[in-house]
Design brief:
Layout lengths: L1 E6 L26 E2 L8 E7 L2 H8 L7 E8 L4 H9 L2 E2 L2 E2 L4 E5 L20 E8 L6 H8 L4 E9 L2 E2 L8 E3 L1
């Protein structure tokens, strides 16, 4: 079984929590499935859930280098230099990243409002970057954007391999 879930902001990417925070169990009533990879509590978007251990490993293990596409709303203007740096790979504290596919994009047309909304600063512009990675380090997209001077305000995972968020509103899921 494979489930595509649009994980909302402020939801833990696990099924239990002793502190009463929102988890995947609040949205997916299916037993025996587990997330293939993680998505931080402050990130939104596609989470793949499966009961197939081999598929889970293929999706989440960095040695398989499965593409994952993100849309990041960043603070500051997205310059060609920042896009070029992301495309070549940047050096983070835990070492250099692999090259990524990066491009400046307009705000996605399918975008839903976030609750709570992101902070808006009248004097600081923001922009959007589409970034496709083949590795999945802890908070990697946020750290890569910060490394090129563009702090991440909002992060949405759109695609994992061949699966996308298309047609899924926050909190909704479908069996794939």
């Amino acid at each position: 079984m494979l489930i595509c879930l649009n994980k909302p902001y402020d939801v833990l990417c696990q099924f239990t929590d002793g502190e009463g925070r929102a988890t995947l169990a609040d949205f997916v009533p299916v037993k025996g499935v587990y997330p293939a990879g993680r998505l931080d509590r402050d990130s939104e978007g596609l989470v793949i859930l499966t009961d197939d251990g081999r598929l889970q490993a293929r999706i989440s293990d960095p040695k398989h280098k499965m593409d994952k596409t993100y849309f990041a709303q960043v603070e500051g203007l997205v310059t060609p230099e920042a896009v070029a740096a992301l495309s070549k790979g940047v050096v983070l504290k835990d070492g250099p990243t692999l090259p990524a596919r990066a491009r400046a994009v307009p705000p996605p047309g399918w975008l839903w409002p976030r609750t709570p909304p992101i902070r808006e600063r009248k004097t600081v512009p923001d922009g959007w970057i589409e970034l496709t990675l083949r590795e999945g380090r802890n908070r990697q997209v946020r750290r890569m954007c910060a490394a090129v001077g563009l702090p991440c305000l909002r992060l949405i995972r759109w695609r994992v391999g061949d699966w996308t968020l298309e047609g899924l509103t926050p909190g909704s899921w479908r069996q794939a």
